[in-house]
């Protein structure tokens, strides 16, 4: 695997260095403590029981046997759990406030809305005893007819006013698509189908809860501690200031822990009921029924182009099941409608109320599916036009956001397309395709993009330098495996002028200054803005004290002439004149100095739009007789703005690309329509790429300077690495075999 990272010329500070993870040692030695590993005196263990029907009512509930089982402390059901105070409305966790995964809370009545819905919680002195007793809860149901897949509910489809918790309109239009399609020189009109997907982080969702009087502490596996805090507060009806949420380590998530599902509040209810700490960890199977999923979907795309291949019309419709409660669809039409210049556009979401839980964010939520439809259709358009697919993309690149008409704050899309093409050797793409024994070889490509989310509320951080010359910098961000703690250590060290070894970054605790949850590829940009602002303010405070202090060698100097190197404030051009942070603090009898920093939100009427762009290229080998597809190479070029840590950024992008391979060829959750249950709810049957599936992955960077997104120009790398991989692979399969597959995942039956 190869990577190129360019650092700004002349820059030798900590930002951008491929620093090893600051939490790496703790993670690989078992020193890192996850939410389900916190030792507490008197700890009890809770196990959930899920409904066995998709729709209906509980007709009888017998907990006698479970209650009598060894070690059982309590069995909670809708009859004795207690009522929630309010059911908060759906809101993305990005805002750092209330963010329930669905506007329904279980165990409040005898109604069943989806299979697996929590119906009982068994608490015992050990996990094994709780698990055993959970099988002794006897429940009977009156079952009613259910709808769980698109094919059962097609005739009930409706057009919602808005989707995605109300943030995305159900319909968007510009120009006149029907007329433009009629007048187009070439058109492509195709339907694409997508299996449901589940996130499957290695750490299953878990909460450990305990009360001290009226104060609640939750150790939670989450993408955002503040979101957990506010959601549980609303559900329990207590002030959020009485709840502390700690999430120092989160073992992967991919969106499963973005919204706050039911188990943190259930753990709090249970801990209150038994008067002891409660640990509630979902089983692997329960991860398929307890924290959302990427919905099954159908998308239809119609493209119209003029004879030179310039798009004149794009019509994009999506149909998908949502829960009985919420109008949720992942926003598949967004980025696909902003990728290329196109004057006439129509995007429409249609939903079916189904007996499943509310779907949720799953890595690259919407972009990954929408771009599969768009970029596969673009490949087909190129074929119709007799144009090279790369050339077709280059002809349609736009310097402005086609949706808002505003210029991109930075792009780099053309450079990514050209650079990625060089890396894969696009020039050797020839028709007819090459062969290697029984294998047909093909090359395919796709453009890639992911939104840059700005802050909904001020992003805050705190920086402190102690009299021993070390610093601690804090913000409530959670590291879900991205390396954000490491990157923020670098940002803090650079702004303070300290070596990284003397900086410690702390996150994952609601007692720390609030920043957005680790969602939407926004962590690096938003948290770095707060950390940079706080650390810069502290550096300025030190310099102001030094120049005002008669005892300082810098007394009387212009603060603008003072720079900090290795913790020493020195005069620019005269590095012998100055003093260290520690010296100043000791002379002034100060144990430490501290500053907070706050950044954003930027004005709503900003005259630009922001997007992270990239390009994906794939080389596949296909055995058309056996239906096998092997991805031999992936090459991606990305323009994510400032890279904070070359190693962790590359890892994020590489992981995204391999995840895209999984989306293309492996990942599918199958609904069993008779029971409304996910039929393959295990890591044995839900397939994800393993090392043997992972090809040679080439991650390349295109440098773009973005001066408007945030102070450091960071656009994020969490999800753009996945966008466009699946269509690049599908297009490569077409190049190799002539077969056009319009469904994900692409399996053996689609090839033979
Ligand atoms: Mo991520 S799918 O934006 O939580």
Description:
It contains 18 helices and 33 strands. It is an alpha+beta fold and about 750 residues long. Among the domains are: about 210 residues, Aldehyde oxidase/xanthine dehydrogenase, molybdopterin binding domain (Aldehyde Oxidoreductase, domain 4), CATH 3.30.365; about 140 residues, 2-Layer Sandwich (Aldehyde Oxidoreductase, domain 4). Strands 4-6-2-15-12-13-14 form a seven-stranded mixed beta sheet, sandwiched between helices. Strands 1-32-29-28-20-19 form a six-stranded mixed beta sheet. Strand 24 and strand 25 form a beta hairpin. The longest helix has 26 residues. About 55% of the residues are buried. The site of dioxothiomolybdenum(VI) ion (MOS) has 9 residues, from loops. Keywords: Molybdenum, Oxidoreductase.
Q: Which ions, cofactors or small ligands are bound in this entry?
A: dioxothiomolybdenum(VI) ion
Please report the first level of CATH classification, the CATH class of the domain at 1-11 and 405-454 and 608-752: Alpha Beta
User: What is the global morphology?
Assistant: globular
Task: Name the helicity range.
Answer: 10-25%
Instruction: Provide a count of the helices.
Output: 18
Number of DSSP strand runs: 33
Instruction: Going across the biggest sheet, name each strand in turn.
Output: 4-6-2-15-12-13-14
Task: Please compute the radius of gyration using only Cα atoms.
Answer: 27 Å
Beta-strand content: 25-35%
Q: How far apart lie the N and C ends?
A: 31 Å
CATH architecture of the domain at 1-11 and 405-454 and 608-752: 2-Layer Sandwich
Main sheet overview: 7 strands, mixed
Structural class: alpha+beta
| Average pLDDT figure | 95
Uncertain parts: 1-6
């Amino acid at each position: 695997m190869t990577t190129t990272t360019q650092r700004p010329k002349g820059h030798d500070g900590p930002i951008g260095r491929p620093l090893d993870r600051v939490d790496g040692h703790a993670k690989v030695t078992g020193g890192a403590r996850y939410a389900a590993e916190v030792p507490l005196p008197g700890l009890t263990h809770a196990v959930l029981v899920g409904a066995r029907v998709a729709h209906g009512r509980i007709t009888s509930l017998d907990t006698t046997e479970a209650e009598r089982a060894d070690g059982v402390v309590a069995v909670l059901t809708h009859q004795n759990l207690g009522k929630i105070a309010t059911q908060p409305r759906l809101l993305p966790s990005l805002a750092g406030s209330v963010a329930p995964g669905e506007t329904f809370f279980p165990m409040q009545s005898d109604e069943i809305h989806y299979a697996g819905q929590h119906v009982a919680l068994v608490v015992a002195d050990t996990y094994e005893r709780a698990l055993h007793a959970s099988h002794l809860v006897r429940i009977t149901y009156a079952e009613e007819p259910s709808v769980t897949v698109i094919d059962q509910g097609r005739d009930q489809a409706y057009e919602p006013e808005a989707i995605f918790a109300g943030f995305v309109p159900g319909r968007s239009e510009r120009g006149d698509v029907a007329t433009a399609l009629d007048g187009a020189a070439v058109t492509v009109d195709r339907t694409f189908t997508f299996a449901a997907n589940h996130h499957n982080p290695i750490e299953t969702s878990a909460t450990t809860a305990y009360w001290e009087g009226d104060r609640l502490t939750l150790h939670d596996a989450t993408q955002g501690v503040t979101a957990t805090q506010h959601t549980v507060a609303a559900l329990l009806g207590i002030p959020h200031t009485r709840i502390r949420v700690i999430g120092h380590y989160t073992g992967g998530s991919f969106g499963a822990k973005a919204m706050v599902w039911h188990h943190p509040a259930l753990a709090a209810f249970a801990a209150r009921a038994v008067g002891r700490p409660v640990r509630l960890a979902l089983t692997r199977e329960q991860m398929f029924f307890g924290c959302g999923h990427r919905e099954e979907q159908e998308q239809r795309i119609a493209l119209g182009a003029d004879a030179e291949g310039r798009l004149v019309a794009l019509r994009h419709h999506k149909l998908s099941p949502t829960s009985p409660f919420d109008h949720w669809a992942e926003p598949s039409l967004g980025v696909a409608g902003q990728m290329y210049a196109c004057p006439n556009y129509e995007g429409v979401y249609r939903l079916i109320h189904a007996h499943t839980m509310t779907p949720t964010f799953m890595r690259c939520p919407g972009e990954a599916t929408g771009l599969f439809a768009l970029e596969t259709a673009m490949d087909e358009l190129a074929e119709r036009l007799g144009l090279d697919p790369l050339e077709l993309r280059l002809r349609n690149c736009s310097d402005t956001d086609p949706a808002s008409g505003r210029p991109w704050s930075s792009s780099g899309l053309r450079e990514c397309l050209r650079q990625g093409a060089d890396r894969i050797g696009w020039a050797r793409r020839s028709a007819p395709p090459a062969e290697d024994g029984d294998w047909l070889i093909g090359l395919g490509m796709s453009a890639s993009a992911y939104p840059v989310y700005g802050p909904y509320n001020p992003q805050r951080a705190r920086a402190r330098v102690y009299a021993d010359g070390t610093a601690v910098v804090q913000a409530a961000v959670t590291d879900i495996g991205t390396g954000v703690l490491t990157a923020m250590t670098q940002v803090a060290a650079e702004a303070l002028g300290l070596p990284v070894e003397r900086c410690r970054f702390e996150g994952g605790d609601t007692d720390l200054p609030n920043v957005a949850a680790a969602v939407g590829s926004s962590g690096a940009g938003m948290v770095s803005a707060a950390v940079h602002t706080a650390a810069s303010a502290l550096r300025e405070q030190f310099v102001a004290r030094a120049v005002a202090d008669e005892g300082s060698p810098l007394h009387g100097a212009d603060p603008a002439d003072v720079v900090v190197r290795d913790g020493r404030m020195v005069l620019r051009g005269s590095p012998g004149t100055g003093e260290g942070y520690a010296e100043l603090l000791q002379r002034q009898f100060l144990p430490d100095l501290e500053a907070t920093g706050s950044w954003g939100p930027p004005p709503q009427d900003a005259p630009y739009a922001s997007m992270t762009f990239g390009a994906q290229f794939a080389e596949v080998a296909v055995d058309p007789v056996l239906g096998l597809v092997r991805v031999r190479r992936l090459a991606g070029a990305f323009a994510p703005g400032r890279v904070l840590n070359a190693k962790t950024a590359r890892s994020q992008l590489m992981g995204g690309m391999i995840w895209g391979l999984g989306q293309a060829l492996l990942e599918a959750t199958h609904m069993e329509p008779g029971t409304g249950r996910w039929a393959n709810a295990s890591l044995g049957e839900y397939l994800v790429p393993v090392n043997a599936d992972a090809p040679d992955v080439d991650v390349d960077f295109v440098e773009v300077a973005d001066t408007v997104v945030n102070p450091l120009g960071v656009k994020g790398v969490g999800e753009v690495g996945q966008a466009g991989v699946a269509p690049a692979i599908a297009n490569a399969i077409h190049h190799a075999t002539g077969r056009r597959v319009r469904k994900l995942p692409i399996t053996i039956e689609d090839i033979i």
